Amino acid sequence: MSEEDFPTGSGAPAALERRLERALGRQIKRIRRSQDLSVADLAKTAGISVGMLSKIENGQISPSLTTIAALAGAVNVPISSLFAASEERGDCSYVAARKGLIIERRGSKSGHVYELLGHALRGDIVMEPYFITLREGAQSFTGFQHAGIEFIYMLSGRVGYRHGDQVYELGPGDSLMFDSRAAHGPDQLIEVPMTYLSIIVYSRESS
User: Fold this and answer.
1) In this model, does residue 190 exceed pLDDT 90?
2) Helix (H) or strand (E) holding 196
3) Residue 93 CA: distances (Å) to CA of 14, 50, 118, 119, 134
4) Helix (H) or strand (E) holding 51
5) 57: buried, middle or exposed (CB in 10 Å: 19+, 13-18, 0-12)?
6) Do residues 89 and 19 make contact, with C-beta atoms less than 8 angstroms apart?
7) Contact at 8 Å (CB) between 143 and 184?
8) Which pLDDT value is given to residue 79?
9) What's the mean per-residue pLDDT of the chain?
């Protein structure tokens, strides 16, 4: 997805990462090193080439079940343990108070400040949480458009928030969830400064 396709830049990658292959490769490498085996040692015992093992450990290829079984046998572990990192790992993104990344987005030039509160995690679904501030002198901006669903929760101030041809007056505690492919954004800045949470959710396959 290009910026021209979705002007707000909330773009999902064009293709999914090879998450399973990379997790499998990392686990094989970890077990090999824990047993003090070189790449050549493990490749020889498993009956595969050094080049193939290197590609497997780097997540560059999808090994066959026969190859996976051979690797598991070579390091004397159950096949299931080679997938443990992929199955059991829980991703987590921690951001301390006022330490979110300030980023430039459409609307920044209108006085809108975007603080990213989390980083993209693995999986087919991406979530981008933002803490947004509109300060004194900020301007209305209703030209946001991007893939996915957006959820807004007002923390302070009051705003007339436009989605398509409708305007919703939001104050502290109010929320709004909408299809973000339609044009949207703060239309009437009723009480500034204002702050709100904006959470954008979209598929990595969006284009």
Assistant:
1) yes
2) strand 184-203
3) 23, 36, 6, 6, 25
4) helix 50-57
5) buried
6) no
7) no
8) 83
9) 84
How many Å apart are CA 110 and CA 28, to the nearest integer?
A: 50
Summarised one tens digit per residue, pLDDT across range 122-172 is 667 788 899 999 998 999 999 999 989 999 999 999 999 999 999 999 999
Rg of the chain over all Cα atoms, to the nearest angstrom: 24
Q: Would you say the pTM of this structure is higher than 0.85?
A: no
Helices and strands in the chain: count of H runs, count of E runs: 6, 7
What own/partner pairs with CB < 8 Å and gap ≥ 24 does 64-71 have? 68/24, 70/46, 71/28, 71/42, 71/46
For residue 23, give both structure tokens: 């997790």
Phi, psi of 92 (to 5 degrees): -150, 140
Closest CA to 11 of 195, 207, 170: 207
Residue 81 CB neighbour total at 10 angstroms: 12
Read off the tokens for 101: 């990344």
Q: Which amino acid is at 191?
A: E
Give the domains, in start order, of the chain with CATH numbers.
Answer: 19-88 (1.10.260.40), 101-203 (2.60.120.10)
Contact (CB, 8 A) for 184 and 144 = yes
AA letter at 140: S
Token readout for 109 is 């030039």
